[in-house]
Amino acid sequence: MPHINNILLILSLVISLWAIVGIITKIIEVSRRPEKEQNDRLVRIEEDIKLMKESAEKRHEDYMRYFERDKARIDSLSEGNAIMQRGMLQLLTHYADGGNNHDAIKKVRDDLQVYLTNRSVI
Fold first, then answer.
1. CA dist 97 → 51, 59, 104, 110, 112 (Å)
2. Structure pTM?
3. Angle CA(117)–CA(121)–CA(122) in degrees, nearest 5?
4. Nearest Cα to 69, choosing from 58, 80, 61, 81?
5. How many CA atoms lie within 13 A of 96 on its CB side?
6. Tell me: the pLDDT tens digits for 53-93?
7. What's the half-sphere exposure (Cβ side, CA atoms, 13 Å) at 48?
8. What is the spatial distance between Cα 34 and Cα 40, in angstroms, rounded to a whole number?
């Protein structure tokens, strides 16, 4: 009988230890649950930030392309404006001189013709 009591004592100790390990495991799991939820939330937030950053970079590239196109168009308009102003100035000079200076009028006409022929529509 003493052997049976010893075996029962050992088995009850093993069962008690098993229960204690289970309780400790549950306590650790419960204590880590908020950490896991927080980590999952941080991962989702980081993914959202990455998507927003990619979107912002694409919009930036689009805007820079628009700005470059607008700058080219403004430069083209400025060039045309300068040629037109030179032409008007030459006409005023021509009339002020009494109709002389035909060579300057022809030069301005040729410049204007070259500009109007070669300009590209943006």
1. 69, 56, 12, 21, 22
2. 0.47
3. 150
4. 61
5. 6
6. 999 999 999 999 999 999 998 988 888 888 888 888 888 78
7. 6
8. 10
